[in-house]
TrEMBL record:
Signal peptide range in chain numbering: none
Organism: Photorhabdus asymbiotica subsp. asymbiotica (strain ATCC 43949 / 3105-77)
Annotated family: Belongs to the SufE family.
Pfam (any one): SufE
Gene: ygdK
Catalytic-site annotation from UniProt: 64 (cysteine persulfide intermediate)
InterPro entries, per database record: Cysteine_desulfurase_CsdE, Fe-S_metab-assoc_dom
Protein name: Fe-S metabolism associated domain-containing protein
Domain Fe-S metabolism associated: 24-145
């Protein structure tokens, strides 16, 4: 995928240098929940902290135990760039997984993605607490609502 020369708001490596296939391969090597937990923390460290000026109320998710921000930018090629941050390391790692699956894709491609299935494939869905799983579902729901806005027809 070629990246245009336009300036991305809050660039990150997910979906570009870190692919969904790489995530699957990495997590499939994890035999214990602790290993998956460690991978989530490593992913969180790779997601740059959003500058304070981007942590705006209109992109802050409500109802989350940790503060979470999820913003997006429509690129000139019609693809979407998503960015975000969280105060919680695990939530930030979960956000990084979502960003990996949706970054730089068209709204139609994102709307057809089975994001929750990815968490199952990574062996995370069954390990997350109810509140964290609800948070993941809320993030996915927000992404889907954003993409619906851009899908014409």
């Amino acid at each position: 995928m070629t990246q245009s020369t336009e300036t991305l708001t809050a660039p990150h490596p997910f979906g570009q240098e870190i692919s969904q296939q790489q995530l699957i391969e990495t997590f499939n090597q994890c035999r214990q929940w602790e290993d998956r937990y460690r991978q989530l923390i490593l992913l969180a460290k790779k997601l740059p902290t959003l500058p304070d000026n981007l942590k705006q109320q209109d992109i802050e998710m409500s109802g989350c135990e940790n503060r979470v921000w999820l913003g997006h930018q429509l690129l000139s090629d019609g693809n979407l760039h998503f960015y975000g941050d969280s105060e919680g390391r695990i939530v930030k790692g979960l956000l990084a997984i979502i960003l990996t699956a949706i970054e730089g894709k068209t709204p139609k491609q994102i709307s057809e993605a089975h994001l929750l299935a990815l968490f199952h494939q990574l062996g995370l869905e069954q390990q997350l607490s109810g509140s964290r799983l609800n948070g993941v579902k809320s993030l996915i729901h927000t992404v889907q609502n954003i993409t619906k806005h851009y899908i014409k027809g």
